[in-house]
Design a protein that fits this description.
The structure holds two protein chains of two kinds. Chain A is α+β, with helices and mostly antiparallel strands. Helices cover 61% and strands 10% of the residues of chain A. Chain A has a domain of 339 residues: Up-down Bundle (Sodium/glucose cotransporter). Chain A is built from 22 helices and eleven strands. In chain A, strands 7-6-10-9-8-11 form a six-stranded antiparallel β-sheet. In chain A, a hairpin with a 2-residue loop joins strand 2 and strand 3. In chain A, helix 5 runs parallel beside helix 12, helix 7 packs antiparallel against helix 18 and helix 14 packs across helix 15. The radius of gyration of chain A is 25 Å and the shape is globular. Chain A starts with 6 loop residues before the first helix and ends in a 7-residue tail after the last helix. In chain B, helix 1 packs antiparallel against helix 2. Chain B is built from two helices and two strands. In chain B, strands 1-2 form a two-stranded antiparallel ribbon. Chain B is mostly helical. In chain B, a hairpin with a 2-residue loop joins strand 1 and strand 2. Chain B has one domain. The chains are: A alpha+beta, B mainly alpha.
Chain lengths: 623, 96
């Protein structure tokens, strides 16, 4: 797909960036002290903090990644929404008030509050940096993906723009400016996502979506051709290769790939490879995703349309067993010459299949069941252990305010996650899924309602990245300047020098984020966020929970559990099928083990390590 | 050097009550969440396609229900915590 920014989208984007920078410089005078820089002076109102939590938490993975996953996989993407939100229950009921009572500026402060252990300072700071960097990479990547259609600029330029703006936000007023940028972004995201879903429900469902209009005003929606092998042969197409159910044909040197069904039917695919897109050097992938039948509506011939629907009717029509939805999946294949092709092919599913787990997260075999449980475990326990979320508890005046801001966050984030189901399914049925990059599904759905909504939603999506990256950089700079330099290194910095060290650290982390964002171009937005949750849940949560609820917890136990959590979670991920099939470019079957999600092993292992080591080192317990 | 909080919020006599309440509610939510995971795993996805009401299946109702239930429990938790804080002379009460 080839989308260019309009003057309107560029104007809205520029306006938003100007507003963000104005806020940052306006609040710069409040960031003179360490408390002002790292914790916004602890004077943020709980309601503002609650929406800022939402702004911090609803990252590119939530907005772009989940909507994209629902658009291509149906209900499976919504599992992330459920798990991400459930994690806030752990944060509210177990972590919020104790974290506020014990900590000062960083997550490390809270863990170390009763020990004064150099080991905890070092381990917790490293954990903060690892989790923050795992989280930073996909955010920067998402920014690059957004800037391409929004401003018509290359991916790397988008990453650099985000990096520069975020460094400006964080290095001017630290947590204060970060808070108000996140508040602004969280509020706008909720408002305009609601408007987008409202438009979607008013339009209703149809088997003939308007989709995205081309330059001639006609829909760009890709409706795949269907044929039999005999029909293709009669048309002069010759089969030259087959890779599983994907078959390569040629006619007069022109390549085409077809997907063969078990009944012999062939569906024309979209593909990229050997420098061509759909057979042409300047070809484009066309948007996909449509309903071919709406169950429960009278009449099955011709175009079906529901007209305006309520939220329940919208979901019920899609759930109907007679509904048929054309999903598009992707496979990498090699032809007879060993050339690599990326083939995007249609797969029609029933409403029943679309609206329940199972397209991606199957639960047939034991390993599949373990993977599913492991994913839900990491999502549940990851939230309350994310350092950039935990530091927001220090920006409010009291433990009661920490609690109340968490409840506002649950309301805002929960509401948004329900909207993701509608936005994702809306994109899946409106012909607004880019087969090569499902992360753009929500902005493209907005585009089907006109350029204004697309411009606003895209600018907000960009702001989504800004808000989250700013929070991550504050957390990472706190780990470097406050935990490592001041506390672990024993430099005992003055207030002024601690703020300056934080700003320098923010600058350095920002540069690292820019470089990683460019290097990791193309990695799925939600991929590394899953890592971050698994590592946070494995490394940090056992330490937090046991410190709060087990009196025999020792400093050595905490250090050991953090290290074992990081190493085991990362080790399982790096040797698992997702890495082999993805970044390593190998076959998933060659992975050392079939476990894609580490939580089910690494979280209990981290707990066990803490208990065993604490029992072995009874003399170093909390004061 | 120990790391004190950025803002000293003083002693909180309601702290023990809030901790017990929080752990209790966490366990309740855990049971409902584990129920969702196990329902899917043990029935190998089949139970999730059961239509529950108004054409909505168990996957949608249970999934959205988990989100709504979290907010419901959160509001009850806050109500009970706030009441206890008032009873114990406002230690830890919100100052903003």
């Amino acid at each position: 797909m080839n989308l260019h920014g309009t003057p309107l989208s560029i104007a809205i984007f520029a306006l938003f960036v100007a507003l963000v920078l104005y806020l940052s410089f306006f609040f710069a005078r409040k960031a003179k002290s360490a408390a002002g820089y790292y914790a916004a002076g602890g004077q943020i109102h709980w309601a503002v903090n609650g929406i800022s939590f939402a702004g911090d938490y609803l990252s590119a993975a939530s907005f772009l990644g989940i909507c994209g996953m629902i658009a291509t996989l149906g209900y499976d993407g919504f599992l992330y929404s459920i798990g991400y939100l459930a994690g806030w229950v752990v944060a509210l009921f177990v972590v919020a008030e104790p974290m506020k009572r014990m900590g000062k500026f960083t997550f490390t402060d809270a863990l170390d509050a009763r020990f004064d252990s150099r080991g905890i300072k070092l381990a917790a700071a490293i954990s903060t940096l690892v989790v923050s960097i795992c989280y930073l990479i996909p955010q920067m990547n998402g920014a690059g993906s957004l800037v391409e259609p929004l401003l018509g600029l290359p991916h790397w330029v988008g990453v650099i723009i985000v990096g520069i703006i975020v460094i400006a936000i964080v290095s001017t007023a630290g947590m204060t400016s970060t808070t108000y940028v996140q508040f602004l972004k969280g509020g706008l995201l909720l408002i305009f996502s609601t408007i987008l879903v409202g438009f979607l429900l008013v339009r209703g469902l149809t088997t003939d979506p308007t989709s995205l209009p081309g330059e001639d005003g006609k829909s760009l929606l890709n409706v795949p051709d269907k044929a039999t092998a005999a029909q293709l042969a009669a048309g002069g197409l010759v089969q030259v290769h087959a890779s599983g159910d994907l078959v390569k044909f040629e006619k007069d040197g022109q390549i085409s790939w077809w997907k063969q069904e078990t009944d012999g039917t062939l569906w024309k695919t979209q593909w990229t490879g050997v420098g061509l897109v759909n057979g042409s050097p300047d070809g484009l992938l066309m948007p996909v995703g449509r309903l071919t039948r709406i169950g429960g509506l009278e009449g099955t011939g011709g175009v079906q349309a529901t007209g305006s629907v309520t939220p329940v009717e919208f979901l019920a029509y899609l759930t109907h067993p007679d509904t048929r939805i054309e999903q598009w999946h992707q496979k990498t294949v090699f032809d007879e010459k060993g050339e690599k092709f990326s083939v995007h092919y249609p797969k029609t599913v029933t409403g029943t299949e679309e609206m329940k787990p199972g397209v991606k997260f199957k639960v047939g075999t034991t390993w599949e069941k373990l993977n599913f449980v492991s994913l839900m475990l990491a999502l549940f326990f990851g939230t309350a252990a994310l350092p950039h979320i935990l530091i927001r508890y220090y920006t409010v005046p009291s433990p009661a305010c920490a609690r109340k801001s968490t409840i506002v966050a649950i309301a805002a984030i929960g509401f948004f996650y329900v909207l993701t189901l509608f936005m994702g399914l809306g994109a899946a049925t409106s012909g607004t899924v880019n087969p090569a990059d499902n992360n753009m599904s929500a902005p493209l759905l907005a585009m089907s309602f006109g350029g204004v909504l697309f411009a606003i939603i895209s600018a907000i999506a960009f702001a989504t990245v800004l808000g989250t990256v700013a929070g991550l950089i504050v957390a990472a700079s706190g780990a470097v300047a406050h935990d490592l330099m001041d506390r672990f290194g024993g430099m005992n910095l003055s207030e002024e020098r601690k703020v300056r060290a934080g700003k320098v650290a923010a600058f350095a982390v920002g540069i690292v984020a820019i470089i990683l964002g460019i290097v990791f171009k193309g990695v799925n937005v939600s991929f590394l966020v899953g890592w971050a949750f698994a590592v946070a849940a494995s490394a940090n949560l056992p330490a937090i929970l046991m410190l709060l609820f087990w009196k025999k917890t020792s400093s050595a136990g905490i250090v050991a559990s953090i290290i074992v959590g990081i190493v085991s979670a990362l080790g399982i991920i790096l040797t698992g099928p997702a890495m082999f099939a993805g970044p390593y470019g190998l076959r998933a079957e060659d992975a050392w083990h079939p476990l894609g999600q580490p939580g089910i092993i690494s979280i209990p292992l981290s707990f066990l390590t803490l208990v065993v080591v604490s029992l072995m080192t009874p003399g170093k317990r909390a004061r | 050097m120990l790391h004190g909080p950025a803002q000293d919020s003083g002693p909180d006599p309601a702290s023990a009550y809030k901790t017990r309440l929080g752990v209790g509610m966490f366990i309740v939510y855990c049971i409902v969440y584990v129920g969702f995971v196990l329902t899917n795993v043990l029935s190998e996805g089949r139970a999730m396609q059961t239509i529950v009401f108004s054409g909505l299946n168990l996957a949608v109702v249970y999934g959205i229900g988990l989100i709504v239930f979290a907010l419901f429990l959160a509001l009850i938790y806050n109500h009970l915590c706030t009441r206890k804080e008032r009873e114990t002379a406002g230690g830890g009460e919100a100052r903003s």
